[in-house]
Amino acid sequence: MDLEPRLPEWPTFGREPDLSPEAVDVKLPTTLSLDEAFRAAFYLVERYLAVEDQPSDDLVLFMQYMRSDPARLGDWMNSVRRALTDGGAANGYMHLEQGGIES
To answer: Mean pLDDT over residues 83-90, rounded?
Structure first.
């Protein structure tokens, strides 16, 4: 089984990433696979960089890391493990909103 995340092509800075009309109407699931979650995180960084005319070098480097660093898979899996065991789910730590994620 190939665990390596599959990512889109490099973003064009200074423009909004495209979201297809079909994607707008997709009902959000309550859970994601590791690959889906990694791609969602990638798209979040891509979106932030795309709206900036002069994106931060640090975030550009982070995007490059997410795209091609050999350690990214292990780092991602360890980050997921940390999120699952840090007690955050019980105390509301770093949730998107108080009631959970809206779908």
So the answer is: 73
**What is the value of pTM for the model shown?**
0.66
- How many domains does the structure of the chain reveal? 1
Residue 53: give the domain boundaries. 32-80
Residue 45 included in any domain: yes
- How many CA atoms are closer than 13 Å to the CA of 81, on its beta-carbon side? 6
CA 33 to chain centroid, in Å, comes to 12
pLDDT at residue 96 greater than cutoff 80 = no
Residue 12 lies in a domain: no
Amino acid symbol at 10: W
